[in-house]
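[User]
If only I could read backbone structure tokens as easily as an amino acid sequence. I have put the entry right below:
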Amino acid sequence: MTEFDIGEFFIHGDAREVDGEFQAVIVMRAKPPLKAVTTHQVEKDRWFKTADAAAIAGKEAAKALKTAVDSGALTS
């Protein structure tokens, strides 16, 4: 698993199963000393038939988020 550093969080893409279907998610882990871990669905109401397909979509979304942050998306 590859984690990306986006400031206050480390992120990675993954899949989450809900009732036999799968969501692509970005997992955000707060940097120490915080221990919070949250998951965020990549696209609302988009479901995948396999965990592998969802995980690939989650990883692509995490890479895109990292690229956006590196390009200054969070700066004011």
Observations:
- The chain has a mean pLDDT of 92.
- The radius of gyration is 13 Å.
